[in-house]
Amino acid sequence: MTQHEVVVRGLEHEFRSTGGAVRALDRIDLTIEPGELVTLAGPSGCGKSTLLRILAGLTAPTVGTVHVGDELVERPGADRGVVFQRPTLYPWLDVRANVEIGLKLRGVPKDERREAAERQLATVGLADFADKRPYELSGGMQQRAQIARVLANDPDIILMDEPFGALDALTRERLQAELLNLWRRTGKTILFITHSVDEAVYLGSRVLVMSPRPGRIVFDEPARFLRDGSPVPTDEVRTLPEFVDLTTRVRDAISH
Ligand SMILES: Nc1ncnc2c1ncn2[C@@H]1O[C@H](COP(=O)(O)OP(=O)(O)OP(=O)(O)O)[C@@H](O)[C@H]1O
């Protein structure tokens, strides 16, 4: 499978309401290479979710374009999967049916989609919970199920909007490690939004920071100590001088 780069050109976005116009994004140019794990941090309201929704094809930009390879993004597509902060599982379906839903809508035969669902539930450690309803799962497990659903669709690009923001610290750390494993195994392109500077630096192969009003990318650097081929990082990574240095500079970029 050939993966494509994501190319954002001259993106601007304005929300108009009765109170006036909000310029959420301003002159965003960005290329995400196949297989990058790009983390995007920035203060609340700086436009991170708006950018993600435009990449997902859920919001049409006021000005500018997004391409995946040669394709202009105009609507959601099977090449892009979205994981939101709050799990968006259907409460009336069991976990397996929730994971299968995208494949079902695309007309994938039952045996095939069941197999894909069970494989991805195993990937996220939920093999034994396929018959449960979402309300029987913890927040972390629901988030895992949401990730399994995206993986079952096998998108090239995974867009994650603060997926671990609402989880307790321990569950969050476990899911961070799982995400890194998954990324290294599959080589998928991932854009990951977070409020946490530590999470951005820990997970990213490249770290972006946006500034608010109007939303612009003000920081864009590789996370050098997590270059391809390095082992999945442990807590030791956080004590490396390079980690501390990048964390400090990301924090400065956010506060300026
Ligand atoms: N549907 C909307 N209508 C009007 N204004 C909006 C809408 N969605 C977002 N905004 C405004 O656009 C700006 C960017 O919002 P956005 O949700 O993209 O920020 P964010 O960086 O993701 O914030 P957070 O980290 O708090 O989720 C904010 O000022 C917000 O109030």
UniProtKB/TrEMBL annotation:
Source domain of life is Bacteria
Q: Which SMART domains match?
A: AAA
UniProt cross-references to InterPro entries, sorted A to Z: AAA+_ATPase (IPR003593), ABC_transporter-like_ATP-bd (IPR003439), ABC_transporter-like_CS (IPR017871), ABC_transporter_ATP-bind (IPR050166), P-loop_NTPase (IPR027417)
Sorted keywords for this record are: ATP-binding, Nucleotide-binding, Transport
**Entry GO MF terms:** ATP binding
Q: Does the keyword Nucleotide-binding apply?
A: yes
Q: ABC transporter domain: which residues? A: 8-237
Secretion signal, residue range per the UniProt entry: none
User: What protein is this chain from?
Assistant: ABC transporter ATP-binding protein
**Species name:** Aeromicrobium alkaliterrae
**Source taxonomy lineage?**
Bacteria, Bacillati, Actinomycetota, Actinomycetes, Propionibacteriales
